[in-house]
Amino acid sequence: MSGPAASLKGFLIRGLPVIKEGDDIPALLRSLFDLQDGDVLCLASTIVAKAEGRMRDLSEYQPDSHAVEIARELGKDPRFVQAVFNESSDVLIERPFLLVATRFGHIGVNAGIDQSNVGDEKILLLPEDPSASARRIRQALGKDCAVIITDTCGRPFRSGVAGVAVGWAGIAALRDWRGEIDIHGRPLNITQEAIVDEIAAAANLLMGEAGDATPAVVFRGLVYPRSGGSLFREKENDIIRPRLKS
After folding, report:
1. SS (H, E, C) the chain
2. Cβ atoms within 10 A of the Cβ of 79, count?
3. How many Å apart are CA 12 and CA 14, to the nearest integer?
4. CB-based burial label for 150 (10 Å; 0-12, 13-18, 19+)
5. How far is 161 from 117, CA to CA, in rounded Å?
6. Are 76 and 69 a contacting pair, CB within 8 Å?
7. Selected residue with higher pLDDT from 187 and 43
8. Taking the CB of the first residue and of the last residue of the chain, which one, N or C, has fewer CB atoms within 10 A?
9. In terms of Cα–Cα distance, which of 140, 132, 197 is closest to 169?
10. In the prediction, which pLDDT does 110 show?
């Protein structure tokens, strides 16, 4: 991204109701905020998932013997563990936590399944295909803006969580600096900047967590590439698989 920092503005979209299955998120957003071409709209994955009917009751899951075994070791509900397995294309680590690859390529703990603010015995899955969701929302908004769907995720060898992008549309996932020249005149060989993650982290800082969360943020004044790159590895052998405890 480039451009003067003084031109960048961030807006919280306040007034969204508690989202339910079938709610028209683009219509709600248009009624609350005047989006402009070039804006970057960041939406918490939770509201997109709720609108898309991704709420589940734990009673829907019948854990198999492996889920029961892992749940016993992790101190979790076996039905929750089964839900994680169901939402995963690959299980990378089973102990001391479940680190998995979701079906759309994101790697995270517990497949990003949320148990906060959803009620007892219920869970909220991530959108089935967050980038497809972002494209639909962008098209329905009728503006030449970018849409990023965010979630919070832990980082290797760091404490705490930060906002990351799980889906995006109208913006490149990566800005490729390879071939550019650094301040000493040397060409950059490997630098690719995960701009959608950087924007998602800034949005999460504004959104807040828990009961004070505001799930929609707009950034205005960013200059960003419109297409190119992906955050997710497409080949299984690109993932360095840790040795699982037998």
Report:
1. CECCHHHCEEEECCCCCCCCCCCCHHHHHHHHCCCCCCCEEEEEHHHHHHHCCCEEEHHHCCCCHHHHHHHHHHCCCHHHHHHHHHCEEEEEECCCCCEEEECCCCEEEHHHCECCCCCCCEEECCCCCHHHHHHHHHHHHCCCCEEEEEEEEEECCEEEEEEEEEEEECCCCCEECCCCECCCCCECCCCEECHHHHHHHHHHHHHCCHHHCCCEEEEECCECCCCCCCCCCCCHHHCCCCCCCC
2. 20
3. 6
4. buried
5. 18
6. no
7. 43
8. C
9. 132
10. 95
Is this model's pTM higher than 0.70 or not? yes
Report residue 145 as tokens.
């803006």
The 10s digit of each residue's pLDDT in 64-88 is 999 999 999 999 999 999 999 999 9
What is the C-alpha separation between 25 and 10, in angstroms, rounded?
20
The residues, any chain, with a CB within 8 Å of residue 221's CB and separated by 6 or more, are 3, 7, 8, 9
Looking up tokens 């690859």, which residue turns up? Answer: 101
Token pair for 91:
């299980």
Q: Which residues contact 233 (CB under 8 A, 6 or more apart)?
A: 105, 239
| Spatial distance between the Cα atoms of 105 and 34, rounded to a whole number of angstroms | 33
Q: What's the mean pLDDT in 223-246?
A: 61
